[in-house]
Amino acid sequence: MKKNVNDALTEALASMAVGMPDDKVEYMGRYLKSYCERKRAQAKLKEEAGEAESKWAAYECENDEKKAALQAKEDEKNAKLDKLTNFLMELENNALTKQDVMDQVTAFTAEYIGVPACYIGTRKTINEVDTLYYYSANDDQKPKVVGQKLTAPTGEGEDDAPQRQGVTFEAFKAPEAPEVEAPEDAPEDWSPPPPPGPQPLVVENCMRDTRCKFYGIPKLGSFLAVPLNFNSSDHAEGIVQGEAPAEEAPPVEEAEEGAEPAEEGEPAEPAPPKKIWIAQKTVAQSLVLCCDTVGRYRAFSKADIDTVKTIGDKLISVFEVIENRQFEGQSAYLDGAEGQAEKVAELVAPLAEEEAAVIAAVNEELNPPAPEAAEGEEPAAVVPPAETLVALKTSVAALKVQTGAFAGADLSALLNGMASHVLPPAAAVTNLLYTASLLCGIGESAKDLYGEITWNNIVTKCIPSLGASMASFDAETVDATVLGDVKAFVEANGVLPGEYPPTCAICTALSQWVSKAIGAADASAAHAAFLAEQEAAAAAAAAGDEQD
Question: Do residues 165 and 153 touch, judged by C-beta distance below 8 A?
Answer without folding.
Answer: yes
